[in-house]
Amino acid sequence: MERLTLSTLGAIAGDAVTGPRLDPRSLSIGLVHLGIGAFHRAHQAVYTELAAAATGDDRWGEFAVTGRSATVVQQLQPQDGLYGVLTKSSERSTLHVVGGVRTIVNGGGDTAATLAAIADPAVRVVTLTITEKGYRTGSSLGVLATGLAARFRAGAEPISVVSCDNLSGNGEQLRRLVQEHADAAGPADFVTWLRQCVAFPSTMVDRIVPATTDRDRAEAEALLGLRDEGLVVAEPFGQWVIEDNFAADRPAWERAGATLAADVAPYEKAKLRMLNGTHSLLAYLGALHGYSTIAEAVADEQLYDAARALQREDAIPTLEAPPGTDLAAYGDQILERFGNPHLRHTTIQVAMDGSQKLPIRLLDTARDRLRAGAVPHHCALAVAAWIVYVHRGQDRLGRELPLNDPLAPVLREHAAGSEEGLVDRMFGLREVFDEEIAGQDAFREAVRDATTSLLKLH
Ligand code: CS2
Fold first, then answer.
1. How far, in Å, is the centroid of ligand 1 from the Cα of 12?
2. Centre of ligand 1 from the C-alpha of residue 75, in Å
3. How many other C-beta atoms lie within 10 A of the C-beta of residue 458?
4. Burial 288-304 (b: 16+ CB within 10 A, else e)
5. pTM for the complete prediction?
6. CA-CA distances (angstroms) from residue 273 to 98, 269, 379?
7. C-beta of residue 281 within 8 angstroms of C-beta of residue 307
8. Torsion of CA 265, 271, 272, 277, to 10 degrees
């Protein structure tokens, strides 16, 4: 089967397939993205292309940098940067070919081209999806800071750096980390320029993007009549809320449905705690129950009730509703989205990187509830499910549950041994449970009770 490329693009047809809204050959590079994974390809890259098409603005072609693996380079480079987004709903699947990614380089290789791209005055935006752990390990941040220093030396044109990761206050966190790099490296006038001429808007990003399977690729091939190795899969829903704080020109993302807001915090907090927090609860409880997908887990009445209770009894009391949002209805919509059986979003995919995700999406909720004098029993159940997932390493049918986590060795070490002291050993992990949370006896007791119940069940 022929590959999707600029020369075969003209062959695509069918009412379920749409091609790039602008001729990819007409685009000049105006944006650098660090961390081109599936989520970025199904989310920001789609908004950027639609925004460019809505305004006929051909200045926003993307220079994309992969993570450490060269896989995405091998998927996209032979396809002239083209890839499909296969959107799956109960009605049908549709496929849109995105043409905005014009250059792809391997983030694990030579950084010279990336530094030159960030320094290029024609580039006015850098976006990032480097995952929660990327803010702790720092390799992408080093490249970003070095690229900004190169930009400063090359004429110091202003630029906006936009974090698109699932973190609260992601823009401010990114600014602080880049500033630390700059303070350490200097020189002083670069540090001043960074403060005055580089904006770090915060954002909230939302779209469920399960890992692409061979079955997805086969479905896309049938629709396209071409082989697409760069295919990504997504739900119909998407949301992007961006702090209206830019240092230079940018794509008209609001023309593609993004929301520009003065304050993104209410949106970020609601999404992290009501979507991502319940996602983790369903991932760990569902995996232990033997459910392969989130859709199967949320179809289980007990698990559905646990997720809804986490939203309503633990999360919502800690939230300020974003403008025009009914949080209870927002929560029900999230659970309905989780139930989309066509996505086949796996419990073990969501279960990845728990040590990096739990503090942000569950323990921050627990902290707020404990400070308010309440015991967050549903957060405790989610934490207990994670502990049992790590401890047991298998579901109730004896099938292995993979531990894909940057802290896997130390997690295994703390989770090994008797069930007796299991929760206390895990609470000793300061990378996950900080002093305040670890010192909350009522929460620890709730986690211990939930862990004991789960261990009896599985
Ligand atoms: C998920 C997120 O894998 C996970 O941790 O909770 O990737 C989730 O699908 C997205 O944040 C949805 O916007």
1. 31
2. 23
3. 18
4. bbbbbbbbbbbebeebb
5. 0.96
6. 31, 6, 10
7. yes
8. 150
CA angle 70, 405, 299 (to 5 degrees): 105
CA dihedral (259, 260, 266, 268) positive or negative: positive
Give the residue, by CA position, lying nearest to ligand 1 atom 13. Answer: 206
Q: Give the three-state DSSP class for 305.
A: helix
End-to-end CA separation in angstroms for the chain:
46
Closest-CA residue to 403 (of 283, 293, 291): 283
**Residues contacting 194, CB < 8 A, separation 6+:** 148, 152, 178, 179, 182
Q: What is the pLDDT, as a whole number, of residue 34?
A: 97
Atom of ligand 1 nearest to the CA of 350: 3
Cβ 109 vs Cβ 70: under 8 Å: yes
User: Residue of the nearest CA to atom 9 in ligand 1?
Assistant: 208
Which of 46, 274, 276 is the pocket-test mutation for ligand 1 (most atoms within 8 Å of CB)?
A: 276
Helix axes 364-371, 377-392, angle to 10 degrees: 140
- If DSSP codes are grouped into helix, strand and coil, which group holds residue 235? coil
Predicted confidence at residue 137, as pLDDT, reads 73
Length of the chain: 458
pLDDT along the chain (458 residues), means of 10: 95 90 96 96 97 95 92 96 96 95 92 96 97 83 94 94 95 95 88 95 98 96 96 98 98 98 97 98 98 98 98 98 97 98 96 96 98 98 98 94 97 95 97 98 98 92
- The rounded Cα 128 to chain-centroid distance in angstroms is 10
Crossing angle (nearest 10°) for helices 170-185 and 139-153: 70
Pick the residue whose CA is nearest to atom 1 on ligand 1: 350
Q: So what's the pLDDT on residue 414?
A: 96
**Ligand 1 pocket, residues with Cβ under 6 angstroms:** 166, 206-208, 275-276, 279, 349-350, 357
The pLDDT of residue 421 is 95
Q: State the amino acid at position 431 in one-letter form.
A: E
Is the Cα torsion angle 404, 410, 416, 418 positive or negative in sign? Answer: negative
Angstrom distance (rounded) from CA 104 to CA 100: 11
Q: pLDDT digit string (tens) for 256-281?
A: 999 999 999 999 999 999 999 999 99
Provide the 10 A C-beta neighbour count for residue 353. 16
